[in-house]
Amino acid sequence: MEQINVDILKDLHRHAIDSGSRDEASLRDAVRDEGALFFIAEGANRLTGPLERAAFLIHRIATRHPFYEGNKRTALLAAEDVLTQFGYCIKDSSELNQQVRDIAAGCLEEDEIISWLETVVVPIR
Question: What is the assigned CATH class of domain 6-123?
Fold first, then answer.
């Protein structure tokens, strides 16, 4: 299992920003809270289960907002990156965007995110 570090999180953020609107391009490398990124990477590396690690990343990135823009997208990309390492992905659904918004709003805790992931994670074909 690949260790997560700040550079990986920043790369995922760049990808999230690049997939967004052109208005966000100036925020591609803008980190709001570098300390939060270190905390998130360190915490994720302590977890060994794919769902636990993915839930931690989604929750912490979406709620702590370490970047100025693209936190929800980055959170989802980070979770998918972890799941891919284990041979899984999150199936696309109409509720995916709202679920990540709910997580960012603090409506779901990590154990609830794990339960949700259990319903939307599928093996990569």
Answer: mainly alpha
